[in-house]
């Protein structure tokens, strides 16, 4: 019964802004930005409130190191679910986050697509010339610097279907730091892969837990070697944190 109540609450709480933004975006980008701001400020926290109330699905955001975050920084994180985006919006709700995402998310994903386009996140095509992807990242880097925004990149490039950490790809990470040098905050998350599909929401959500934690903050790298060292260490740090969470040695 709670499955139907949860889905009903989603539709009531989130359906209106999602539908309104679909019609608003082609007509007025300014209006779409306002609706998207509402989605970020109100809908993202509401999403987790609904999950907590009806499915006892807990959000566990570790506040350690949050007070040490600089004014602007690049977030490097593993990636498990579309819910990772609202997760970070809730965890760092006082920051203007902008995500590097695959271009497919910019079309036909309710609540998400228009918000990503209106807020000018980096929409990277999965196919075609690599130069197009690099130009998209260059424009994105210029925007986040000019607007004091916080870029978020998932070096795996795609969601992990089983929660296991995949290979980290350096091209996008290095391009962003070349164009917009800034400190790097390494973050880990876990739990999203269990609820990345409608079936997962229906069957695996109850008593679930979604972790997120800042693991380390690096000064802005000044060379290619430093960039690669940070990326390599990031994967090690994230894997270690995943192991601790799953072993129960770092509880919420």
Can you put this structure into words, describing what you see?
The protein is α/β, with parallel strands linked by helices. The protein has 8 helices and 7 strands. The chain has a 7-stranded mixed β-sheet, sandwiched between helices. Helix 1 (2-27) packs antiparallel against helix 2 (29-55). Keywords: Acyltransferase, Lipid biosynthesis, Lipid metabolism, Transferase. This is Phospholipid/glycerol acyltransferase. Pathway: Lipid metabolism. InterPro entries: Plipid/glycerol_acylTrfase.
Compose a concise summary of this entry:
It comes from Treponema brennaborense (strain DSM 12168 / CIP 105900 / DD5/3). By secondary structure, the protein is an alpha/beta fold.
